[in-house]
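Weekly structure sync, notes
Attendees: PL (lead), two postdocs, one rotation student
Agenda item 3: pending single-chain targets
PL asked that the sequence for the first pending target be pasted directly into the notes so everyone works from the same version. It is reproduced below exactly as submitted, 242 residues in total.
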Amino acid sequence: MAEVLETISHDKPSTFPEALQLFWLYALMAGCINYGRLDDFLGPYLTCDLDEGRMSEEEAVVWIRSLWTMIENRRTTVNGRVIVGGQGRKHPKEADRFAHLAMKVCQSCRYVEPQFTLRVDETTDESLWKEAMDCLAQGATYPTIYNDSVNVPAVSYGMRVDEETAKRYVPFGCTEFVLWGQSTGTPNTLINLLKILTIYMNEGIDPMDGGHTGWMKKWLNGSGRWKRSGPLKNSFKAIVTC
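Predicted structure, written out during the meeting:
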């Protein structure tokens, strides 16, 4: 571990342990509580180590089980998502190699976290699907399964994005859908201040659809100034000033 930490302190990772360690440090320091599509992030490093003989599959399983244990020990109760499979991955073949080994860990670790999530569609590797069914048949906690053939079009429609963007969906916490790298956080009780600021700066009009926001219209006069003072006015003054 000392050598791994020394390497990633000044250079990019080139092995699976280095990539795994760097990911975990970033997750802890950034306060991440959901970990995204780890198969796509870590699969290329894992595949390279396996193909070049630096690591066996058994050793890789030990590394992944160690990550599972750290996530469980960090317990958030309703988060800790690790997602594999599905549409929109950059490295599907390499990602599937990670997914197969992660499924082995899933079968033996009956943890509450990570919430190990498998995204599937008609192109999903049949052996990966069978492994998932075996896990559930043997009473493993996970994987949870999401059908991309249904969810991608639904996200595209519901979030008003194209289907390529919709492929970036990830279940957040208790399954609220967000877009990896684009959403502002869980939609539960979320106030999107950037959206409100954008509407304010456009005199109550949402540039995305051209619609006029009713409550904003009541507060704005023709010149774009607040009609009356109050806490909301002061809050927006502070935001605009910043």
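Discussion points:
- Residues 2-179 form one domain.
- The CA atoms of residues 94 and 242 lie 44 Å apart.
Action: rotation student to compare against the earlier draft before next sync.
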